[in-house]
Every structure is written in C-alpha cells, then in structure tokens.
Amino acid sequence: MSSYFTDLAQQYIGGEWRPGTGSWDIIDFDPYDGEKLASITIATVDEVDEAYRAARDAQREWADVNAYARRAVFEKALRVVEEREQEIAEVIIAELGGTRLKAGFELHLAKEFLRESIQLALRPEGRIIPSPVEGKENRLYRVPVGVVGVISPFNFPFLLSLKSVAPALALGNGVVLKPHEDTPVTGGTLVAKIFEEAGLPDGLLNVVVTDIAEIGDAFVEHPIPKVISFTGSDKVGRHVATVAASHFKRVVLELGGNSALVVLDDADVDYAVDAAVFSRYVHQGQVCMAANRVLVDRSVQDEFTEKFVAKVKALKTGDPRDPGTVIGPVINSSQADALTAVVDQAIAQGATALVRGTTTDNLVGPSVLTGLPADSPLLQQEIFGPIAFLIPFDGEEEAVRLVNDTPYGLSGAVHTGDVERGVRFAQRIDTGMFHVNDGTVHDEPIVPFGGEKQSGLGRLGGEATVEAFTTQKWISIQHGRSRFPF
What we know:
The protein is an alpha/beta fold. It has helices at residues 2-7, 45-62, 67-83, 85-96, 100-120, 157-170, 185-197, 212-215, 218-221, 234-246, 269-281, 301-313, 333-348, 395-404, 419-427, 463-469; strands at 11-13, 16-18, 25-29, 36-41, 127-129, 136-144, 147-151, 174-178, 205-207, 227-231, 250-254, 259-263, 291-297, 352-355, 359-360, 363-364, 367-370, 387-393, 408-409, 412-415, 435-436, 452-453, 456-457, 470-478.
C-alpha cells in the first residue's frame, strides 16, 4: 500500500506525473496514528492553467470518439478497481481514517457509479422539434459542455470524485480534478492512475493537488471550464457559486445537511434504533446525509432512548484497521477540537449528556445529548461528527415543524408502521431526498441526488447527470426558402 502514497504523491497534468512547482508542500497524514504518508509539492496557478488547457485540447478529439468506443475505457476502469479493491480499501483506511466497513461501503458505491458511467456514454439523445415556419426542421443536439472542474471533499473522496469525474468523461468532456488537501491520493491521484491504466487518452483527466492559499479562486475563475462540480461545506459552496456565476459558469453543488430521522408513535422501535445509530455514526458522522437530529414521539421516547443509548455505548472506537471498529478517527485535529467544543457548548446551554465520548488525538468517542434548548444554534448547524441530538415531539405537526426548522434540506427519514403515512410525512418536508422506514444515508447511480435550501444546487444521478455535464444546441435547417421582410 505504501507504494501508492510514494508513487502518486505528484501532480498529473497532460498525461504526465510530475511534482508541483509551488513553494510549499501538502503533508498527507494518517489521521489515526499521525504517520506521514506523503509529501506533495503543491500546484501553482500556472499549473492549474496547464491542466485546463490540456483538458480542453484533449477534449476536442475525445468528443468525436464514438460513444461505444468511449465506454470501453470505463469498462476497463471498473475492472482495475475490482482487481485492486483490497489495496484501494487500505488506502481509504490509511488516508482518511475510514473503518473497514466504511471502505467497503465506499468501494461498493464507487463500482456502482462506474457501472452507470459505462451506460452514460450512450445516454445523450437528440430531438426533432416541430416548427411553425414552413419548410424548417429543428434539430436539438445534446453535446458535451467541454471541460468540467471537479472539487471533491475529504469524507468519501474516492466515491465523490468518481461520481463527477467518470460521468463527465463518459459524456465526452475533459476534466480537471482538485481533491481535498487532506485526501489528495484517495480523492485525486488514485483516480487518475485508474483511468491511466484504463487507457483514457492523455490530457483528458488532470489532477492538481493544491490549496486556495496558493491559487485563490483560479480553479473556478479560469475561462476554460464551463461547469464546476463542488462537494463540501455550504460556506465554501456559497463562495464557489458566487465566483462561478460572475464568470457565467454553471455549478453543481452538493453541500452540507442537518438531516433528521423521525420516529413516529407507531414505529418499530428496535428497527428505528438500528437505522438511527447507523445514520448518525457511520464514518464518525462525517457524512453530509447523517442524522444530526433524532426526533422521537414522546409516546415511545423512553423505550427508544434506552435502546439507542445502549447501542451507542456498545460502538467500538479505535484503530480503523481493526475489523471490529465502528468509529475511527475524524479527519484532523481541527475537526476533533471543534467537535469536543460542540459537546461542551451543548452542556453549557443546558443539555444532558446521556453518553459523553472522550477525545484522544483525532479519536472522538460518540456522544448522545438531550434537553438542548429549542433555540440553540447547535440545532441549526451541521455537526460533522459522532454527536447525536435526541429531540422529543408531540404529534406529527410538531415533528414536521421541527424537521423543517433548519437552513438545510438534504436528506432525512421517517419511521412508521404505515408506509403511506410515512410518504405523506415525507411530502411535507423541504428536502431533496427523504426515506421511509430506512436510514438517512443513501446514494444510487440513477436517482437524482441533491438538496434544497442551503444544501446545494442541481442534482447528480441518471438523467440529472446528463443535464449537469452536457448542454443543448439548436440547429435549424430550412428545406425551402425563407421570406425576409427586407
């Protein structure tokens, strides 16, 4: 595994592996034990420019490649991932502190999205549209946008890079990928290596490992990319959207969430507990769809709370390489400190800690808090870690109000013995996604994924992906002769 970090600790521009020319290095650490994995000299504004130019030049020829020929690259990429699956899992565990369970979950989804990319190459279809003008034929073509800039996050870097990179390439575009500085290999150069081995033409995919401290807004402002696909916080997403709009670029933004899992009075409590614990604590709670808030009808509050607390106390925190570990380290010390401060703040505001996890280096144990004041700012924000807020409610009307009382609208779930009651509940929630009798954390290749309010703009998945990474072009043909007024 160590060879991955040695060999891939470079920039990948125009089909060449090379060091950056910046004046400082990004140091890649294992968040569990602090081991230095790699040192990568950052890319400069000039190298970002080179990457975009390489993608533009290669894309012109790639767009003319027969779609059936293009899809062969993605078939090969899928085989590469399948053959290297265990090695890739070890990289995920080392670089982002993912548990073995999490690594398997991420790889499963990544393969599903690669399979869908094979089909996406054949998805764009044209149309013939009627005209009121005699003798005119209107053709509507769906064509690649040209070049797509992708900025991926640290929590599911392999999956969320591939989720934009593979479809954009399959649909005939070039791509420049900027991974998060905490996961430059898993979210960046590893993806490039897979497509290099799969036979993707040089220059089509470029990876620049850099930081805004070095390049500012150059990645988004550059004149070549027509679409920016960003996954990350709403604060940064707002800035990306503002900069992109000022340069007439489209954006796909998958941002934060403050999802709620709701337990109604007729729910299967044991099943709801299982769903809630997974939804809150998977990958240390570092998931945009995670259940920040667990809302429970007072009629089942005592039973649910007792069982939920017991299950959380049984979760093993520790070395992510241990197959029995459920909660590994958070990504870095800043996150660990911020999460510890959240628990302290909640208790200072009057909350009761039913479970209070301890923090050792980047290991943040799970916490369960209840009794937080209804006006606490903590209930309005995304908590990106293993902290659950239990909130009682009286009846559906109050539950709907509480769920919607947030600036976010990404995911959520409701548990009930009546499926149609659950659907009616879901229809009243202002989110992009909502699940009946399941967890809050889901993603599928052909279902539109995205949020409302401050949780993002646009969708990815199925036809939504085609919309995101292509544009429409109208070509009309006059088979007769038009009459002009002068």
